[in-house]
Amino acid sequence: MTSPQDNDQQFQSEKGILVIHEDAFHREMIVLSLTRNGYAGVFVVPNLEKGLELLQTVKPAVVVLSDGVLEVDDISASDRIREAAGNAVKIVVLGDGSDKDSRERAKQINADDFADRSPGSFSHYAHLLKSIRGLIL
After folding, report:
1. What is the reported pLDDT for 131?
2. Angle at CA 100, nearest 5°, toward 95 and 104?
3. pTM value?
4. Distance between CA 94 and CA 49 in Å, rounded?
């Protein structure tokens, strides 16, 4: 399998999912989880600006946004994503559920859902898959 790196990686899809995550390892793990669960179309980028560039040509059903990206980029992230992708796009913030600030950032940007990726929890990708499934279906 091709490993997602700092350059954009694209996997063909009927239902597009854009993953914006600052960490290459987590991007790869998210792509593996999604593709193994039937999501064939996943786009991954390392930051919000690259995500916004990609949204000029791709209109995914869901954008997964790492809370680490929100620490670096402003809280207008969801407005900028919805402006580029359309208001129908669903936004899931992937963050540490034990961190009050992480959940608060998700609320501040009006995310559609929050997926817990608490440290030490092996099931955090399961939380993400459940969230995406709930938003797409």
Report:
1. 81
2. 75
3. 0.79
4. 18
Q: Is the confidence at residue 72, as pLDDT, over 70?
A: no
The predicted-structure confidence for 75-98, as pLDDT tens digits, reads as follows 688 889 999 998 889 999 988 777
**Mean pLDDT estimate for the chain:** 79
DSSP track, 47-96: SHHHHHHHTTT---SEEEEEHHHHHHS-TTHHHHHHHHH-TT-EEEEEE-
Question: Which residues are bridge partners to 91 per DSSP?
Answer: 63
17-20 and 42-45 strand pairing: parallel
Given a cut of 90, is residue 74 above it in pLDDT? no
Please, which residues have CB within 8 angstroms of residue 120's CB and are 6 or more apart in sequence? none
Strand order in the sheet with 17-20: 9-10, 42-45, 17-20, 62-66, 90-95, 113-116
- For 46, residues 6+ apart whose C-beta sits below 8 A from its C-beta are 6, 20, 21, 22, 24, 27
Instruction: Indicate the burial class of 92 (C-beta count within 10 angstroms; 0-12, 13-18, 19 or more).
Output: buried
